[in-house]
Amino acid sequence: MATTQSVADVMTTNPIVLDSDAPLAEAARAMRDADIGDVIVLDEGVICGIATDRDIVVRAIAAGKDPATTPIGEVCSRDLTTLAPESPVDDAVRLMREKAVRRLPVVEGNRPVGVISLGDLAAQRDPRSALADISEAPPNA
Fold first, then answer.
1. pLDDT of residue 6
2. Domains in the chain, ordered, with CATH?
3. Going by C-beta distance under 8 Å and a sequence separation of 6 or more, which residues neighbour residue 47?
4. How far is Cα 79 from Cα 49, in angstroms, rounded to an integer?
5. CA distances from 13 to 64, 86, 116 (A)
6. Please, are residues 85 and 7 in contact by the beta-carbon 8 Å criterion?
7. Residues near 129 by Cβ (< 8 Å), separated by ≥ 6?
8. Do β-strands 46-52 and 12-13 pair in parallel, antiparallel, or remain unpaired?
9. How much of the chain is helix, strand and coil, in % rounded to 5?
């Protein structure tokens, strides 16, 4: 009998979280230091969004916003779709397709416990794929 893999089996644990009033520069440094492409954004301790490196570039820098003073909550994606750790991986694949997103926060209650990304799924589903290779490669600082 085959067992269904859960999101917890594949997700990246211990996500970086920042308050919505944290400046973009702090979010960028956190992403650089953790070698990740996203941070989860909290508003009064409750998850309210996710911000990616692309959000910082496209919604802020390209629009002329000051990274030292612009809060991450101003540019994060707030229309969130989340999953529970016990959700089947197939649910993550389906939601990413339906919502056209590359990352989904994983939450227990209101507490973020991980992020599942397209790269995580590629590495799990087809470890020899180009996306899996890129996702698993060390950073090219």
1. 94
2. 7-136 (3.10.580.10)
3. 17, 40, 41, 80, 82, 105, 107, 110, 111, 112
4. 7
5. 33, 14, 9
6. yes
7. 122
8. unpaired
9. 40, 25, 35
**């060390």: which residue's tokens?**
138
Write the pLDDT tens digit of every residue in 81-109: 999 999 999 999 999 999 999 999 999 98
- CA pair distance 60, 33, nearest whole angstrom: 20
Contact 28, 67 (CB under 8 A): yes
Closest CA to 75 of 111, 39, 35: 39
The two tokens of residue 24 are 């973009």
Q: What is the pLDDT of residue 125?
A: 59
Q: Are strands 103-108 and 46-52 parallel, antiparallel or unpaired?
A: unpaired
Q: What is the pTM of this model?
A: 0.83
The C-alpha torsion from 126 through 130 and 135 to 136, rounded to 10°, is: 70
